[in-house]
Amino acid sequence: MALAPADVLAGLKEIVEEVAGIPAASIELDKNFTDDLEVDSLSMVEVVVAAEERFGVKIPDEAVTDLATVGDAVNFIVNAAK
Amino acid sequence: MSRRRVVVTGLGATTPIGGDVTTSWSALLAGTSGVRNLTEEWAQTLPVHFAARVAVEPAEQMERVELRRLDRSEQFALVASREAWKDAGSPEVDKERLGVVIASGIGGVTTLLDQYDILREKGARLVSPHTVPMLMPNGPAANVGLELQARAGVHTPVSACASGAEAIGYALEMIRNDRADRCLVLRQ
């Protein structure tokens, strides 16, 4: 099932806000999860698992280290859903 | 070990008769009981339908994101320690000389039970990555220690009903042995 990048971004914003308490308005494609949003490693695991549930995709542990920015995550999820 | 005198400079509490020291003390003097009926559905299958639960839920005193990363035992510890620290005047201290000793009877048992249910019903992938820091008996002390940046030592005596008294004694020894100038002590 194809996913629109805008829909994935909107969903990710909700997840990151819920998990890490970061206001959705400050979550943008170029934001780095660690440096800009201060999402720690345990919270990142929660974000990944919640994203898998929400978008129906698998995000392998080895891929998570490459998801530096919100945009990286959106691209990965969009491609994984194709 | 020196016989240095040690004094209490601040108090904090969250109890079945009050969400802070002042309320709890007033209720205690008034003879108020903290025991209430359990009306929730899950409690109806139990042989006992009453308990002394906290008067003020941590959810009324803490942010949502903070709550979801903490077991109830850790939430209680942070609520009481914040009151105690404030009551002590929020002192400027050398963090290398600040200790935390928080006694625990069991630790994060509700987290252990909840996450075991998730493991059985939904699988390992959905078990929270925060499970271990939430269920460990020293979780309350660890979280308070992190918040206060205490680096003289963060300890958790676990000795059933004696845990609280042991915590007070341990903190006293930390000060008398010159490991710390101040300690934040709680019992659960």
Query: CATH first level of the domain at 62-186 in chain B: which class?
Result: Alpha Beta
Query: Which sequence of SSEs, written as H and E, runs from N to C of chain B?
Result: HEEHHEHHHEHE
CATH superfamily of chain A: ACP-like
Ends apart, CA distance between termini of chain B = 28 Å
Mean pLDDT over the residues of chain B:
95
CATH topology of the domain at 62-186 in chain B: Peroxisomal Thiolase, Chain A, domain 1
Strand content of chain A: under 5%
The N- to C-terminal Cα distance of chain A equals 6 Å
Structural class of chain B: mainly alpha
By CATH, the architecture of chain A is named: Orthogonal Bundle
Multimeric organization: heterodimer
Q: Which word captures the global form of chain A? A: globular
The CATH superfamily name of the domain at 62-186 in chain B is Thiolase/Chalcone synthase
Counted beta strands of chain A: 0
Provide the succession of SSEs of chain A. HHHH
Question: Percent helix among the residues of chain A?
Answer: 55-70%
Fraction in helix of chain B: 25-40%
- Biggest interface, residues from each chain: A-B, 9 and 10 residues
Low-confidence parts of chain A: none
Please identify the structural class of chain A as seen in this structure.
mainly alpha
Describe the structure.
The complex is a heterodimer of chains A (about 80) and B (about 190). In chain A, helix 1 (about 5-20) packs across helix 2. With about 80 residues, chain A is mainly α. Chain A has helices at about 5-20, 40-55, 60-65, 70-80. The N and C termini of chain A lie close together (about 5 Å). The longest helix of chain A is centred in the N-terminal third of the chain and has 16 residues, at about 5-20. Chain A is globular, with a radius of gyration of 11 Å. Chain A has a single domain (about 5-80), classed as Non-ribosomal Peptide Synthetase Peptidyl Carrier Protein, Chain A (Orthogonal Bundle). Chain A has four helices and no strands. The mean pLDDT of chain A is about 95. Chain B has a domain at about 60-185: 3-Layer(aba) Sandwich (Peroxisomal Thiolase, Chain A, domain 1), CATH 3.40.47. Chain B has seven helices and five strands; from the N terminus they run H-E-E-H-H-E-H-H-H-E-H-E. The longest helix of chain B has 16 residues, at about 70-85. The chains are: A mainly alpha (about 80), B mainly alpha (about 190). The interface of A and B includes residues 21, 42, 43, 49 and 52 of A.
